[in-house]
Every structure is written in C-alpha cells, then in structure tokens.
Amino acid sequence: MSLNADLIKQAMFEELQNVLNADGEIRRQAEERLAQLKFTEGYGIYLAEITVNQTLNLAFRQLASVMLKQYVEDCWAEESGEYPSDKNLVVNTEAKAAIKTILPQSLYDSNSKIRSVVAYSISNIASYDWPNDWQELFDIIVKCLGGNENSVHGAMKVLVEFTLDLDKQILEVGPIIISEVYRIFEAQSIYSVSTRSYAIKILNSLLRSVNTHVESNQKQTHIFYPTLPFFIQKMIEGLTVPNGAYSSFELKTEIIKAIMPPIWQILTQMADVYIKIIVNKTEKTPFTSNTEEDENEDFISMILQIFDFLHTIIGIKKYNGAITNVMTDLIYIVILYMQITEEQAQSWNDDPEKYVEEEDEQGVDFSVRNTAHDVLLVLGQEYEQKLLSCFSEALGKHITVADADRNAGHLHWWKLYEASMLAVGSFKQLIIENETLFDLSQYMNLVKRAMEYQTSPYLLGRCLWIISQYCNCNLYNGQTLEHVIDITINSMSQEKPLTLKIMAAR
Questions:
Q1: Omega of the bond prior to 229 within 30 degrees of 0, cis?
Q2: What is the C-alpha to C-alpha distance for residues 483 and 350, in angstroms, rounded to an integer?
Q3: What is the pTM of this model?
C-alpha cells in the first residue's frame, strides 16, 4: 500500500471514530471530511476492511458497514446515485474486485446486524455484477450455506434480498438454492426456527421468480424436481409441529405464505396435464426422468402432497377466508382429480376385488382419486351448507365441459360425469338437509339420461349407485323405478363386466 493510501486509510479511521463522538460539532466536521474522502479510490475498500475486522469495536464496525451499504447504493453503477454529485462517482474496477473479495467474509460474522447489512450490500452488488462480473458469487453462497449457523443466516439473508430475474440465471442456480434451503429446513435439530423460517422465505422468493420468468413447464421441472415434492411434504408436516424448539407462529406463517399461491397455481396448471397424461393417457409425459414410469410417479407424488397440504389447511380456521374466496374453483379442481384413470380402470377389470376395496374405502392405495375425494369430504365437514351453492356451480361447469366433449366425440367424457356423481353421492346428508340449496331433482334427471348412454360400465354403475343413495327422497315415480330395476337386473347378466355386476347387486 502506498504512503498516500496509508494516510487516507488513517484519516478515514479517525473520522469514523469522530462520527461516534458525543460532541455534535465533532460529528458534523467528521461527516463533512468523510464526504470528501468518499471520492478517493480506497474509500469502499477501507470500509469493507473495517467491517470484516472482528478485533475492532462493534459499533465502529457497524458504522463502517452501514456507510459501505450507502456507498454501494450511491456509487456502484452510473445510474445508482441518489444525489447529483454521486452520479459521477463510480467505483472503479479494481476497487469493486477488492470489495467483492473482502465483503463475503462478514457473512460468517458472529453479529447478526453486521451479517444483515453486509448481506444487503452483497445482494445490491449482485444486482449489477452477477453473473457476468461476479461468477463466483453462488459458489460463495453455497459454501456459506454449508457452514455454521452464522454463515447460513448470512447466506440466506443474501438470497432473501436477491432477485433472480432472468430465465438463464434461475435455471443455473435455482436447483442449487432449492436443494440447499430444503436441507436447512429439514435439519430442525441443527438450525434454529428463525434460520429455518428464512429458508421458507427463500423458497417463496424462488417460486415467485420461476412463476414470473420461466414459462416452460420442462424448465420449471428442471428447477424443482426432485426436491420440491419432498419440501412440500416437510412443510405440511411442519404445520402440525407444536410451537417450541422446532416451530413457531412465524415459521408456520412463512410456510403458508410460501406454498399457498404456488400450490394453487400448480394444482390448476397441472390439472390439464394430469388429465391428458394420467387419466386418459392421450399424450406422453412432458417431464424428463430415467423412465416414463418414474416421471409419472414423481408427478403423482407431487399432486398427492398438494392435496395433503390442502387437507391440513382446510381444517385451520385462520384460513377460512382464503378457502371461501376460491371455493367454487377448488371444488371444480378437486372433482377433476377424482376422475378414474385408465390404469385404475384396467386394474379393476383385472382384479374386481380392488374395485370392491376402493368402493368400501378400505383400500391402502393412496391414489389421487381417493385423496382428492378426501379433500372434498373435509370441505363438506368444515363448510357444510355454505359449500352447496359453490358445489352446484362447479358441477354445472363440469356438466357443460363433459357434454361438449361427448358431442365432439371424445371417448373419455363420461369420467367427469362419474366423478361428479361420486361427489353428489358423498354429500347425501348435507343435500337432503338443505334441499333448497341444491336442485337434486334436476340433477337426478341428468343421471337418468346418463344411464342411457351405455358408454362405460363404470358410469352406469355410478348412476345406479347414486340413484340408490337417494331412493328414500320421493324423487322417482313408479315408471322410473321400474326402469331402474330393469337396468339393474340387466347389469347383472352373465356377459356384463364383473365390476358392473358388483355395483348393480349393491
């Protein structure tokens, strides 16, 4: 270091001490001199060196860190300056490199205020320099995430402040970030509740960035899989952990804030994919994995975990308003996922006992259909008659879509009818006790028409089932009952599928 540089550094050191002086006049003079020293090349470097020097007085270091934060805001780029005099004061390349080398050391600092201010400065610098002029930044952050509690907190403060706004950036570092914050959130015996709350904040930020800047489903899959389904499962479990050493209201709030919007979006966006890939098998999977079977299993696992989360949220009174606001759409989506898949239909045809287990709700297979049905039942238990108007509206939409598909010659239109009937039958008691809120007679007319289509034994079986569910409601005249009995007897004839015979016999 040159003599001149030593003199400037010493002058800065003295004036920073004077800024902390109790005498107002001494402070004023020191601030004026520091404003002049701001134009020297080493100004930012010296502030960074003081900030990271843990042998110095803490208040002194905090002052240096705050002044460095302001210096970065004012002078790092030509457009940064808040004041006219700052716009011509830009940190030179050598000083920038030195500051970027020195500053990350304070992410390990034992003082949380130092870490927080430094993290903000690093994020601000990164908004200008990363990735082109600070390629090693994420190596530094990942190293910090693998360090002690202090460095983990410091790194996560950087990530909370940092904004990923380019497709390329997110694709490069998104998988690393989500993997690391999941590791931290999962390790409840190692990291504090506060640190784990920051992990959720970072996930929330990443989800927003991906939603805003990454349009391709395939690219989103690259970022989130295989970590996101496990992360969602752990967060769902986290909602049920009592407050104490491993949880708090802050953590639970962050979980809700993080996963409610993206989960709803994923559930709605993926519905079309699920219908085409899993329910009807009319298209091949768009996801990338070792085998198609692995891809589909991961996809289904994600959906199951989302429904598990919704099941938990529906039972929490605090979120009643949020659920009520989307009730019609939620019921509509849930019924979509209740449709019989091609794989289920084939499995039941091959082994009717599996169908019996499913209908008796004794099966151990946690299918999407069963899990979605459970969510619908919980909605009914929690909201009761408040649900029925939304339920009617959702059913109407499904009938319109199914009829359009039938008229267009689509083979799988009947699955929406069948799932809707399962839903109506599941709310039998609720509908009977609130007959003015649901037009059961009109719906049963639709069921009677559906019996004539002879499209699928599963649809016909469901028609017979729902008619029997409401047989004590004085909805049917003698002619209708006679017709239903004829169809039921015919459905048990020898040549009919065994699954239909089972439903008809019941």
A1: no
A2: 30
A3: 0.63
